[in-house]
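[audit] Reproducing an earlier prediction to check determinism. Same input, same settings, fresh worker. If the tokens differ from the archived copy the diff job will pick it up downstream; this log only records the rerun itself.
[audit] input (334 residues):
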Amino acid sequence: MSNFAIRFLTDTQNPIIMPKALTHTDFNFPGQTDVYHGKVRDVYSIGADTLVMIATDRISAFDVVLPKGIPYKGQVLNEIASYFLDSTTDIAPNWKLATPDPMVAVGIRCEGFRVEMIIRGYLTGSAWREYQAGCRELCGVRLPEGMKENERFPEPIITPTTKADAGHDENISREEIISQGIVSAEDYEIMERYTRRLFERGTKMAAEKGLILVDTKYEFGKHDGRIYLIDEIHTPDSSRYFYADGYEERFAAGQPQRQLSKEFVRQWLIERGFMGKAGQQVPEMTDEFVQSVSARYIELYEQVTGQPFVKADESNLTDRIAVNVLDCLQQLNR
């Protein structure tokens, strides 16, 4: 089963026991045929048509898994993704069948496309860094001159990447995807339509909560000839949010935006000389920093869903997950 580390955040007067973080899984479910350990999720194949996706507490940045897990991060990601998957079934069919555990989703096994559909409403993050370096074309999309950091695009732009098994994903244009046979023109058109409509829905739902959905990514796969939305959507790992309140004033003054996303982790790393490049060392993640990241994830959950976050019992994570998944698989097989 999984290995956990209990970290102690100590000061001279009030020692605090840090919650457990799930950073590794090693299950053997009935009917299991394969397991894939991704950067953040562990995906178990059950038979030919079912997946068990466990959102661990691992955190990655610049395509590097950082050395410490973030308590409750997996629960936040799984529950936000479930919330948005359930809220968008009228736009695109998705892979999810059940959420038997706060950190687990069970669903349809699809053959994933080797492309991530990234859609951007604002010029920020890696796109801004490239723009600042002189880039005026991103994934085949021409960018207007004279834009500023965090400025809204006239219309959202889609900037796909090829999905890598390891290392960095690579930017690629719509035309290259189709000409190289990565995705057919017909399938890409469907994925592009779903991407724009999902982003429109996510933008509306965020606005209702006082947030701006800045950019996000979607993944799609095929099962029995039908295209499904797969993986997570609109979570802090796959999306960037600004607070709407104060956006215009901060933008006009050239100030950083208040945001809820993983970008603050990237910025923390950049400030300490780490961008995932060869020879760079991941800076020490103090318990205070880990606690602050956990709090930011919980804050985002409450902001985007409008619901209070209820921390699940983490005293024995692997036993809890095993029992819940086994029960779910039995129910699905009846």
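[audit] rerun output stored. Observation attached for the diff report: The CA atoms of residues 96 and 132 lie 39 Å apart.
[audit] end
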